[in-house]
Amino acid sequence: MLRILKYSLPLSILLCVLVSCGHTSSTSPIIRITSLGIDINCIEGIENGFVEYIKKNDILIYIPNNEMIFLSFEDVPSDVEVWECILNSNGTKKYTDTMDYQHEVIVEGSSYSFLLSPNIASLLSSDSKDYKKGGIIRGLQIKCTWNDEVFEYIFVVKSDAYIIDSQ
Fold this sequence. Notes:
alpha+beta; Immunoglobulin-like; five-stranded antiparallel beta sheet; 2 helices; 17% helix; globular
């Protein structure tokens, strides 16, 4: 009996290593998000995900308009989409789904990136604080496809309105 246990442990480790090399439906693939040399925390896309993200992250990273955001994957997806919405301070959407914006994703080999371009929906705000530097809270949703399975990741950053009040 000891011989079976002795050899079953290394075999189980080998099986775990083989399974983790490719994406399986029971686990979410690993993603790394960076901008300005800073790692950005993300969470799996869940219902009320932006609200949960803001509850867990007291400080939101500031990324100015027109900065690149880079996506790195342990296992390269077949498709990547990036969607954005403007949020209230509690993480709820400030505007309807019709104001969600899809970013153009740049693919270079196994690297993905997108430009955090100004969001025109930020012009809809009547709150003067939104037009200050870092006054807009932007919720970003990354939809990735592996083997016909879609996984969603979200993160939230502070950024600028389409037009910034420099005073």
